[in-house]
Design a protein that fits this description.
The protein has 338 residues and is α/β, with parallel strands linked by helices. Helices cover 42% and strands 14% of the residues. β7, α12 and β8 form a beta-alpha-beta unit. α3 crosses α14, α4 crosses α5 and α8 crosses α9.
């Protein structure tokens, strides 16, 4: 009798475990299914020489100066929609989903390093025939933008770094989002290939905002759905595994080579990259301006879009202004007196 009870209890436990696992298992979602939901409006696709099928948007004022925007880790080009709304009347704005992100997905060669992503941006700019532009990036995308500015100074008219990666940071006791911590653990990162609760994604999204009213169900659903794009979780695992060999101190040493006008924007309550990093960027980049927003988190372009876009507009108005021409005084020769 006791044995039957134990067997029955064990069976129930196993069944409950199976139900829980099945409830959180998430298989890849085909690209075509996600395109129907998230590739509206100005979205386009182009196959680059590397073989990557890039999802990008080219919108705003086509006759205005070009502004290329690069999103952060596990985000997508949708993060720039508020700036497009604010700045699109003046600037031609090009945004893209980086390799292993959004609707671009996994790419041939599986290069998700900072260098690989900078090369991807270069390929896309060439494909669009854009040879001179301002470039801005958030978080991981900031590090990509800074690297691009160093590698292609002839292409970059101005640089905008928004809560950017690229310098060593010392974090306080606040834990990074659970999804980031799991992605850095070799065994658990493989489990996340098939098990990804929506709650983990939501926790990560909420941690980048101070104003929680900015986090909507649609936003969380977008982050969650795009993380399931076929190949994206494999790409994320590969990317996070590569971080162990990255030397941010050496990269930071190179920042002094950035000569173009630079705007640094930061939220003082950033839990991912503390605001102290903003001062490091300001110290290392010769022609840098710094704007810090109080009670703002990791994504000022979404949390305070009007204020941050206004700062960008004021900065670019000066940075992209043609140099004042020196007045040339022509002295008239005196008339001959007969």
């Amino acid at each position: 009798m006791v044995k039957r009870i134990l067997v029955g209890t064990l069976t129930l436990i196993v069944l409950a475990f199976v139900v829980i696992v099945i409830s959180v298992m998430r298989f890849d979602v085909p690209r075509e299914e996600l395109i129907g939901k998230y590739a509206g409006g100005a979205s386009q696709f182009v196959t680059l020489p590397s073989g990557a099928s890039a999802h990008f948007r080219d919108e705003g004022n086509r006759d205005g100066p070009a502004l290329v925007l690069v999103h952060g880790s596990n985000a997508s080009l949708h993060t720039w929609e508020p700036w497009v709304a604010e700045l699109g009347g003046t600037y031609r704005i090009i945004s893209m989903d980086l390799p292993g992100h959004g609707l671009t997905g996994r790419v041939p060669g599986d290069d998700y390093s900072r260098e690989g992503m900078a090369a991807f941006v270069h390929e896309l700019a060439d494909a669009l025939g854009v040879t001179r532009f301002a470039i801005g990036g958030n978080s991981m995308g900031g590090g990509v933008s800074a690297l691009y500015a160093m590698e292609h100074p002839e292409r970059v008219s101005a640089l905008i770094l928004v809560d950017s990666a690229g310098v060593p940071v010392v974090r306080d006791d606040t834990d990074p989002p659970l999804a980031f911590r799991l992605a850095r653990m070799p065994v658990l990162s493989k489990v996340m290939r098939y098990v990804l609760p929506r709650s983990v994604v939501e926790e990560g999204v909420r941690k980048v905002f101070v104003d929680q009213s900015k986090v909507t169900d649609d936003m969380v659903s977008r982050y969650f759905d795009l993380s399931l794009h076929e190949g994206n979780r494999d790409a994320t695992r590969i990317r996070f595994a590569s971080y162990a060999g990255r030397d941010e101190a050496a990269f930071a040493e190179r920042l002094g080579a950035i000569e173009m006008p630079t705007l640094i924007i930061w939220g003082d309550k950033d839990l991912l990259i503390p605001v102290a990093a903003a001062n490091t960027f300001k110290e290392r980049i010769p022609h840098a301006e710094l704007v810090i927003y109080e009670n703002v988190g990791h994504v000022p372009m979404e949390e305070v879009p009007v204020e941050s876009a206004a700062a960008v507009a004021a900065f670019l108005a000066v940075a992209l202004a043609p140099p004042a021409s020196s007045a040339v005084v022509v002295e008239e020769e005196p008339e001959e007196v007969e």
